[in-house]
Design brief:
The structure is a single chain. With 209 residues, the protein is of the alpha/beta class. The chain is built from 9 helices and 8 strands. The protein has a single domain (2-207), classed as Alpha-Beta Barrel (TIM Barrel). It has helices spanning 15-29, 43-57, 69-75, 89-100, 114-123, 147-157, 173-178, 188-191, 196-207, and strands at 2-4, 33-36, 62-66, 79-82, 106-111, 127-130, 162-165, 183-186. It has an 8-stranded parallel barrel with strand order 1-2-3-4-5-6-7-8, surrounded by 6 helices.
């Protein structure tokens, strides 16, 4: 399970502080990964947030940084997640595999079609996010929801792990796993549940399948 941050919807008063509270709650609840996805946050503040998240994770949870390879490396994060506006995955993977970083450093790619997924696998990505599977405000610019049938096709088309994203909830997450997804990623599932005990029960149930 991956918590994808969105400080603008994490709540006032201080947005960065609020999203850090959400990160700590996700870690305490047993999330596997946290992806810091704060595209408009200035470099120095993004680095500070990433460093604080890595420290809070204490090797229990993998921290990924969206788009910014430089920030991910400087913060000691576990990987970088690439979107449509990021550096090409093939170039990032090639650079990373030249011994520049640890062999455990992850490179993930957001995909919205089978073609995208196959290209990411060919480029050497460790995993992909596929979606939006269900309707969600944060992914509306990518078009209509892809649905479970398309998720199933993508999972069968590639050998690397496929993480379902887009409108994932405690109610529909198991459906994604049954479709072949290796896991799920979500914003609201984590940010709307500030009680770590209640969130831990949700995470435990989803881990159990």
């Amino acid at each position: 399970m991956c918590y994808v941050t969105d400080r603008k919807s994490a709540g006032p008063p201080d947005l960065t502080t609020s999203v850090m509270q959400c990160i700590r709650t996700a870690i305490a609840a047993g999330a596997d990964w946290v992806q810091i996805r704060e595209k408009d946050l200035a470099g120095r503040k993004l680095l500070g947030l990433a460093q604080e998240a890595v420290e809070a994770a204490a090797s229990q949870v993998r921290i990924l940084v969206n788009d910014r390879l430089d920030i991910a490396l400087a913060a000691g994060a576990a990987g970088v997640h690439l979107g449509g506006d990021s550096l090409p995955a093939r170039e990032v993977v090639r650079w990373c595999r030249k011994g520049k970083v640890s062999a455990d450093f992850l490179v993930g790619v957001s995909c919205h079609s089978i073609e995208d997924a196959r290209e990411a696998e060919s480029a050497g990505a460790n995993y992909i996010f596929f979606g939006p599977v269900f309707d969600t405000p944060s992914k509306q610019r990518f078009g209509a929801p892809q649905g479970i049938a398309k998720l199933t096709e993508v999972c069968r088309a590639v050998r690397i792990p496929t993480i379902a994203i887009g409108g994932i909830s405690a109610e529909n997450a198991a459906e994604c796993i049954r479709a072949g997804a290796a896991g799920i990623a979500a914003i609201r599932l984590f940010q709307e549940q500030r009680d770590s005990t209640a969130l831990r029960e949700i995470v435990k149930r989803l881990h159990a399948g």
